[in-house]
Automatic annotation (TrEMBL):
Coiled-coil regions listed in the entry: none
Residue ranges with Gly residues bias: 84-104
Alphabetical UniProt keywords: RNA-binding
Single GO term (MF): RNA binding
Species of origin: Candidatus Brocadia sapporoensis
Region annotated Disordered, chain positions: 70-104
Name under which the protein is recorded: RNA-binding protein
InterPro entries: Nucleotide-bd_a/b_plait_sf, RBD_domain_sf, RRM2_NsCP33-like, RRM_dom, SLIRP/GR-RBP-like
Domain RRM: 1-79
Amino acid sequence: MNIFVGNLSRDVTEDDLQKAFEAFGQVKSVKVIKDLFSGESKGFGFVEMQAKAEAQSAINGLNGKELKGRALNVNEARPRPEGGRGGGRFGGGRQGGGGGGRRF
């Protein structure tokens, strides 16, 4: 099961997350998402755990718990919407354009 971990302190490392989640079961992978240019943490990451029951236990046990001064936001990761990156300022909204102005 893939788990979203939000509200991470900028100095939380993948090792820190690994240790926190290992208390609940076997961790398959850990990834702290970083800015491509600065290399600084974006404040969230993902942890993948082997067993669904262990993952659910980790979610229940770590959501709201403090790690390096910040209360973690931990829940099941939702898959990205079709088409890759979702949300954002320019996603969705009205299609097309033009019109609405004066006619000549």
